[in-house]
Specification:
The protein is α/β, with parallel strands linked by helices. Helices cover 16% and strands 34% of the residues.
């Protein structure tokens, strides 16, 4: 993992808070999205259309959420080098942005944090590796 000065957040997707995952899946498939990962029985699916990625989450989020995955490329492959979520958290705090949910800085590996932008939009930084 690298700790360069760039604020590299990782793979980007939009996580949509949906009311009916089946209706949403059918709708987005008509727009050319294909299921890439997830489990509809558990109320979550990841869909892709080219480089565009959206997550459908029923009952998991209150609002649509911008999601970044440090350590992953667009196909969810682990990158050889990336900025760890805990380092990103330290940089955000140094810049005056306090997470509403913080990663445990005493751990390694998977962790997440969440910040809220000035308009109330949640931003999830969710590291899976």
């Amino acid at each position: 993992m690298t700790t360069t000065h760039a604020m590299t957040l990782g793979n980007f997707s939009v996580s949509l808070a949906v009311k009916d995952i089946e209706a949403s899946r059918a709708f987005y498939q008509k727009l050319g999205f294909q299921v890439f990962a997830g489990d509809q029985a558990q109320n979550w699916l990841i869909l892709r259309n080219g480089d565009a990625t959206i997550g459908l989450f029923q009952g998991m989020f209150e609002r649509n959420t911008l999601t970044f995955n440090p350590g992953w490329d667009a196909s969810c492959n682990t990158l050889p080098e990336f900025t760890d979520v805990r380092e990103l958290q330290r940089r955000l705090k140094a810049a005056g942005i306090e997470p509403v949910t913080a990663a445990d800085e005493s751990t390694k590996g998977p962790a997440f944090l969440m910040v809220i932008d000035p308009d109330g939009n949640p931003i999830l930084i969710d590291q899976h590796v």
